[in-house]
Amino acid sequence: MSTQVILPRIMQVGEGASHELPDVLNSLGCCRPLIITDKMMVELGYAGRIQASLSQQGIASHVFSDTVPEPTVGSIQAGVSEVQAGNYDCIIALGGGSPIDSAKAISILGKHGGHMRDYKFPRVVIEAGLPIIAVPTTAGTGSEVTRFTIITDEDTDEKMLCVGIGFMPVAALVDYTLTLSLPPRITADTGIDALTHAIEAYVSKKASPYSDSQALSAMRLLGPNLRRAYHNGNDKAAREAMMLGSTLAGVAFSNASVALVHGMSRPIGAAFHVPHGLSNAMLLPSVTRFSIPAAPARYAECARAMGVANVNDSDEQANNMLLQELYALNEELQVPTLAEYGIAQHAFFDLMPTMAEQALASGSPNNNPRVPGVGEIVEIYRQLW
Ligand SMILES: [Fe+2]
Questions:
Q1: Distance 102 CA to ligand 1 centre (A)
Q2: Ligand 1 centroid vs 196 CA: distance in angstroms?
Q3: What is the pLDDT of residue 44?
Q4: 141 CA distance to ligand 1 middle (Å)
Q5: At what angle do helices 276-291 and 374-383 cross, to 10 degrees?
Q6: 97 alpha carbon to ligand 1 midpoint, in Å?
Q7: DSSP character string of 204-252
Q8: DSSP string, 284-343
Q9: CB under 5 Å of ion ligand 1: residues
């Protein structure tokens, strides 16, 4: 059986990759970019530096910086209007996963109209929007190399998964130096998200030899470097490994899908406004414990790739070490529990059945090696307390 692999047309990877932006635009024949980013990227000077480097090459650009974390349908409307009113020929998506996900949605809605709900899974979006050149500043969501975007419908509090080649950036500039100033909390949350992508892609029912090779490489990079990057943000070698690992994990899950962690994480994020990486981190140990019996050899390989077990350990030993590591990682990276995050237990318990339904509807739990029913998902949610 063959697998279709979808990737950006250009990937510029390594120290200073973002400096190549004007050349990348030229090679794509684009000269009227809209930079979609957030306020933080403007305040930190990232957007200004990109505008300056473009104008040195005679490329005038405009900045839209009103994207928000965990973007909603409402939050992208002004960006859609900007695309429709302006005469842009491409979008530069600059920032973490939220600006890039916002840009993907704005690209499609700006060109083809309609409501975001019209584009949610199971529809597969094959329309081409405005070409996106993604410049990630976290390591990360992998959004720069995925065919997905997640937009929250604030009317229903649902994080809508939108899928298709239409959301794949045409270029990704993967420059780890942009992550050197990230604070420890964001480093941890985005780093665990990347690790979750790699693990879920590797154990996914849609995994292929291609996605396996990307996922294992990602785990080898992320496993030994997450703590280093968290404790010392200026550790260039750790930052570089995290950035490359995050992009490879993105390639892996874009082509093999994520699974139960992400399926259960999105409803928590939508209902209780927990950042994506954090809700993944809260869920990863419990979901892994639930799933190991259905794919012990696969999870053991994850432990070995992450460097917490070796070839001499049995699968059972490796799986125990994997679980130990996931709990230890959360503790060292100070991942709060739901209670510590300030969520009321009764509010969470009341919503568990709805969240379980939403998790199943997203399709992601079906890719899990052990496919849960509503009752089992509720039980895993309960274990978070
Ligand atoms: Fe994720």
A1: 15
A2: 7
A3: 94
A4: 5
A5: 110
A6: 9
A7: STT--HHHHHHHHHHHHHHTTTHHHHHH-TT-HHHHHHHHHHHHHHHHH
A8: HHHHHHHHGGG-HHHHHHHHHHHTSS-TTS-HHHHHHHHHHHHHHHHHHTTPPPTTTTT-
A9: 193
Closest CA to 219 of 250, 185, 195, 244: 195
- Which two tokens mark 315? 């699968």
Cα separation, 98 vs 149, whole angstroms:
9
Cis peptide before 209 (omega within 30 of 0): no
Say how many Å lie between the CA of residue 265 and the centre of ligand 1.
9
Query: Along the chain (385 residues), what's the average pLDDT of each consecutive run of 10 residues?
Result: 93 97 97 97 96 96 96 96 96 97 98 95 95 97 96 89 96 98 96 98 97 98 98 98 98 95 95 94 98 98 98 98 98 97 97 96 94 98 96
Q: pLDDT digit string (tens) for 174-223?
A: 999 999 999 999 999 999 999 999 999 999 999 999 999 999 999 999 99
The CA 85 to ligand 1 mean position distance, Å, reads 32
Q: Comparing C-alpha atoms, which of 299, 296, 287 is closest to residue 377?
A: 287
CA of residue 53 to ligand 1 center, whole Å: 31
pLDDT at 1: 84
In angstroms, what is the span from residue 143 Cα to ligand 1's centroid? 9
Q: 263 CA distance to ligand 1 centroid (A)? A: 10
* Cα 194 to averaged position of ligand 1 atoms, centre (Å): 7
- Cα–Cα distance measured from residue 325 to residue 323, given in angstroms and rounded to the nearest whole number: 5
Q: Which two tokens stand for residue 65?
A: 């910086």
pLDDT for the residue 302:
98
Q: What's at 335, amino acid-wise?
A: V
